[in-house]
Amino acid sequence: MEKTKENTAEAWKGGDKPFAASYGKLMMWFFLITDALTFSAFLASYGFSRFKYQDIWPKAEEVFTHFPFLHGDHPLLFVALMTFILIMSSVTMVLAVNYGHKMQKNKVILWLSLTIVGGLMFLGSQAWEWSHFIHGLDGVPATLISNPYGHPLFADYFYFITGFHGFHVFSGVIILIVILINVIKGTYEKRGHYEMVEKVGLYWHFVDLVWVFVFTFFYLV
Amino acid sequence: MAETTTNSNWWIWKVFWILLVVTAVEVALGIIQPGFLIDTKLLGTKLLNHIFIVLTLVKAGYIVMSFMHLGHERKSLKWAILLPPLILIPYLLFIILVEGDYSFMMI
């Protein structure tokens, strides 16, 4: 790696890459910063409302206690599985990026496909979690204006934040499918590099990153 | 950049195991809810919550630095990306959670 020009005025005069990163990668990073700030605002306002209504705020471990095909209470188990699925799909994504660097088309196709499967599994789990929450408690559904577990704001934040995150996952899956088609068609082989895979990888890891925080502040804290 | 990553995949699995173990510890603590960590209060909340937040930041660090490759980028890029969130998010949290106290007095 050429490091001599870093931070020198010379590198900033144009025609060079002072950050040693391409335009597209930089823009992806800048987008992710803005997105990170958006999610921080959501979670901070969640914290605010929770402090304000501390006494009647539902405990997530008492709301989400079910696991498919298992009877009884299993707090945190299902969301732990969802977290595992997302971490796993992050790993397959890194592997796809890694084989992209090595220009091994077939392995990129394999790991990218597995990443898409992971994303779809996560979306399915989230749909299950939502439907469980919508069905509510003793026939009383959880909606945006009321829920049987406690303060209605809890349901609002839950739908809004996990929904916004879920929409990110959904968009991510769509983008991954587009990129996968391009990989199969050999677009990046012709281009000589798999940087597009790297860029969508950044986005995908960011989605995982956000989930790590949603998991902590919604389910654990 | 490329030369540090293309040789082998072992670092990917290393990070995977770290993320998995940290998550498992979080879930275990969340299920067991150890009495000592719940009864001890620090800065207005349970000690357990502080542990959760620290473990989450550890996971976030590994995802950003390793998976998103930021640890291997140029120093200038690293700080250009990290500084805005590192300044603005704690600031936002401080304003909303500490100064937000005034809104509690109004009701």
Topology:
The complex is a heterodimer of chains A (221) and B (107).
Chain A: H1 23-52, H2 60-63, H3 77-101, H4 105-135, H5 152-185, H6 187-191, H7 195-220
Chain B: H1 2-5, H2 10-32, H3 35-39, E1 41-42, E2 45-46, H4 47-67, H5 75-99, H6 101-105
Antiparallel strand pairs in B: 1-2
Helix pairs in contact in B: 2-4
Description:
- The complex is a heterodimer of chains A (221) and B (107).
- With 221 residues, chain A is an all-alpha fold.
- Chain A has helices at residues 23-52, 60-63, 77-101, 105-135, 152-185, 187-191, 195-220.
- Chain A is globular and about 60 Å long.
- Chain A starts with 22 loop residues before the first helix and ends with a helix.
- Chain B has 107 residues and is mainly alpha-helical.
- Chain B has 2 domains: 1-73; 74-107.
- Helix content of chain B is 78%, strand content 4%.
- Chain B has 6 helices and 2 strands.
- Chain B has a two-stranded antiparallel sheet.
- In chain B, strand 1 and strand 2 (45-46) form a beta hairpin.
- In chain B, helix 2 (10-32) runs antiparallel to helix 4 (47-67).
- Chain B is flat, with a radius of gyration of 19 Å.
- Chains A and B meet through helix 1, helix 3 and helix 7 of A and helix 1, helix 2, helix 4 and helix 5 of B.
